[in-house]
Design a protein that fits this description.
The structure holds two protein chains of two kinds. By secondary structure, chain A is mainly β. Chain A has strands spanning about 10-15, 20-25, 30-40, 45-50, 55-60, 60-65, 70-75, 85-95, 100-105, 110-114. Chain A is built from no helices and ten strands. Chain B is mainly beta. Classes of the chains: A mainly beta, B mainly beta. The interface of A and B includes residues 93 and 97 of A.
Chain lengths: ~110, ~110
């Protein structure tokens, strides 16, 4: 039968290429953003975060870019590896920011072709 | 650091039975979150606690669901009675000072 459920956008890249995963967030007052990686059968794993007073933050092989004007967040993965295959979620901290409550996006599936 | 610990990792039960999911947050973290993940609805926040006090339970589906946090190192999510539509992966996450949340491995629940 037909599969019913969320249709996550899928990004398919060649091993070694760079990946860019995009996210549009909902609340212009959000001041803290996080990217999570979820591998099959596991819980979401923290990758990198950024505060609203920054436009860019770099980690190991990953970079997060924040464009507050258009409420857009992106995750760049350099030299993508097979182990990067997973579902990636962006999350925003909704005001009041001291609640710790995060709003998660639907996720993007990254497939790395060897 | 042991990370967030959840038990059981898998649970299969029959409709109508009581189900109790357990979570031990990371030591020193003062916020705890319960999420449910399904193919249909994605990742949903059910309830969260700050300093052991429930802050927002607006995501709890209905009265069959309840959560407690008797102390800083333990929380439970209970479903009574369980129904097949409760089948999902339930995650617990914790954070310190309302910042980055760290997730546990999840409990896969199947209600027959």
């Amino acid at each position: 039968g037909e599969s019913v459920g969320l249709h996550l956008p899928t990004l398919s890249v060649q091993e070694g290429d760079n990946s860019i995963i995009n996210c549009a967030y909902s609340n212009s007052a959000s001041d803290y953003f996080i990217w999570y990686k979820q591998e099959s059968g596991k819980g979401p794993q923290f990758i990198i975060d950024i505060r609203s007073n920054m436009d860019k933050r770099q980690g190991q092989r990953v970079t997060v870019l924040l464009n507050k004007t258009v409420k857009h967040l992106s995750l760049q993965i350099a030299a993508t590896q097979p182990g990067d295959s997973a579902v990636y979620f962006c999350a925003e901290n909704t005001p009041p920011s001291n609640t710790g409550k995060l709003i998660f996006g639907q996720g993007t599936t990254l497939q790395v072709k060897p | 650091d042991a990370g967030v610990i959840q038990s059981p990792r898998h649970e299969v039960t029959e409709m109508g039975q009581e189900v109790t999911l357990r979570c031990k947050p990371i030591s020193g973290h003062n916020s705890l979150f319960w999420y449910r993940q399904t193919m249909m609805r994605g990742l949903e926040l059910l309830i969260y606690f700050n300093n052991n006090v429930p802050i927002d339970d607006s995501g709890m589906p209905e009265d069959r669901f309840s959560a407690k946090m008797p102390n800083a190192s333990f929380s439970t999510l209970k479903i009574q009675p369980s129904e097949p539509r409760d089948s999902a992966v339930y995650f617990c996450a914790s954070s310190r000072n309302q910042e980055t949340q760290y997730f546990g491995p999840g409990t896969r629940l199947l209600v027959l």
